[in-house]
Amino acid sequence: MGLSPVISASSSTSAPDTRGADLHAGYSGSSDSHRLDPSPLRVSLTDVQKTFDVGRGRTVQALVDIDLDIAEGEFVALIGPSGCGKSTVLRLLAGLDTTSSGEVELFGSPPEELSRQHRLGVAFQEHALLPWASVSSNISLPYKVAGRSVDKNRVAELIKLVGLTGFEKALPKQLSGGMRQRVAIARALVLNPSLLLLDEPFGALDAVTRRRMNSELARIWSEERLTTLLVTHDVDEALILADRVVVMSGRPGKIHHVEKVDLPRPRDTSVTRTPAFHELVDKLTGMLDGAGEDS
Amino acid sequence: MNTRKLTKASYMVSGVVLLVVAVEVIARLGIAGTAWPSLVEVYEFLGDERQRSTLWRNTLVTLESSATGLVMGTIIAVLAGAVSALVPILRPGLDRFAAIVNAVPLVALAPLFITTVGREDSPAVVAAMGVGFVVFVSTTSGLANASRTHHDVLTVLGANRFRRFARLQLPQALPSIVDGLVLAAPTAVLGATIGEWFGAPSGLGMMIVSAFQSANIPQLWAVALSATAMALIAYFIFIAVQRATVRRFT
Ligand SMILES: Nc1ncnc2c1ncn2[C@@H]1O[C@H](COP(=O)(O)OP(=O)(O)O)[C@@H](O)[C@H]1O
Ligand SMILES: [Mg+2]
Q: Quick check: A196 contacting B, CB < 8 Å?
């Protein structure tokens, strides 16, 4: 039972050379039928493999054959059991890590290029706010990093958008966990990034706060319409927010299923209580369990 | 609450009184030899206007050397710490250099400085040496305190190494740097005094040497008290700075 993924992993790594050559020759010859044509208006991972060196000659195959496109303005959620490589995918898109083979392109450029142009927004499970800086200074940080003058109106607008009016001068330690995550998300949004990357931003919150944050993020997203990748292991969260849900399975991490979500927006309780929503939750949860067993 | 404070204060007062009486009794009985001070004699020594002004003048000299050493040592150490954070290939070399410098006793370095930087400046330089190591270690450890996620967020936002240093690592390191200063401040006084032993024209270290040569026990202990008071005051000032920094930066 545990053998088959290992075998498929090693067989898929045996041909990275030809794949690499193919890529350098250009995309036109790609035989991958389910992949859309490369476009400068798209975020894409093409034939991505990622192997981690864990020392003493041993390696961990974290990702195999990852092919994923995100259209401009699309919200994609990435779900999967813990350790299946979701964060690794996000880190590749953020330019925090490089592929072992394969290509990552954000709107026609490598990720580092977008981050150099200050066009990426990111929020992690740990809020990573600067503890000595107030809410508004934390949200202003991307301006300072970019060497631009702080647009006070934009900062005020975001504070309002994430519902923290009145807390401008507060320090992170004076805020609740949910409020800190809102600041982190406002910081990610302030420069109007071309791509927003969220790695389990609500993972440390209690269930009630988490749902509230989900509907807030849905509202914010409907106003800003940013190309977004959300990593989560919460099926409901993925279905409330995403246009498409990508299900990964683990060891080695690969894409197991892609679900297009056609539910109407906003997906408030009138939607989340429908049988259609529940069917999707059951279907994807079943896949997660299957994927979990797999590992 | 109030009685507890009172009890604590009374313990402290009786402790000090006991210590003073014990020191005086040992001195009077001559149990510990002639170098053991009689506090009454030390007090009488300080009662003399001329002696007192000499002591004060030399205390100020040592204070200036200590302060200069503290500032110089801190600047050099923080700069070295910054270089080691910004240029990773230099890190192991700088760490090793700091460890070697620290392994050489200040007493051994002092005569060397007399011949290189001169009598006047060597107390400050010896103080800076002692300060430098402590502050370097606390700076490098403080600069490494920022979490991986903080670094990642700034990197994704497009911050290069220098911006990350200025916006994240340096403010994050401040409490740790001030921790270093708390330890370094008394070290500066010690370093300056040792630096003055080897032929400095003035300062508490010079007074210790002259008191020792003339077997002037009250002067010896008056100087020691003065140096101790200076080190303690410096320590408590930096403890206050430390509290403020921790409140502001964590
Ligand atoms: N820096 C790393 N070094 C070694 N192994 C890693 C590293 N990062 C991730 N991995 C491994 O890659 C796999 C996927 O990790 P990750 O992407 O964090 O999973 P997820 O986010 O889905 O929980 C795991 O087996 C993990 O141990
Ligand atoms: Mg993860």
A: no
